[in-house]
From TrEMBL:
Keywords from the named record: Hydrolase, Nucleotide metabolism
Requisite cofactors: a divalent metal cation
One GO MF term: nucleoside triphosphate diphosphatase activity
Protein name: Septum formation protein
InterPro entries noted in UniProt: ITPase-like_fam, Maf-like
Origin: domain of life: Bacteria
GO BP terms: nucleotide metabolic process
Organism: Acidiphilium rubrum
Amino acid sequence: MAHEGAFIIAADTVVGLGSRVLPKAETEAEARACLTRLAGRRHKVYSAVAIRAPDGRVVSRTVATVVAFARIEPAAIEDYLASGEWQGKAGGYAIQGRAAGFVDFLSGSYSGVVGLPLHETLNLLRGLGWRAA
């Protein structure tokens, strides 16, 4: 193994609106469609993290966070699209940037919405024997 003794962490995030999973926006049209659907509504952001310990043990956790967007004027969506922050982002937005202004309510893990639920990740690592240097 190239990194003997390393912990390997993998994570991904998806946005769910009702029974639909929104895409990781790859085009401006996809991002616009996501933001238009999310405007004025609650949705869930699911972030999963998996960790492989040096001894081969694997643990994982999925964290769900409820996010509500305020109503968003079409001009605000267009301004956000022009920023490019939406590119490759689940649901077409990055909460850690300009999209924070769309958020009316959040219940759960902010860092999970960003893309890695830090509290849960640290707990998993500690459970596998990792200690901060």
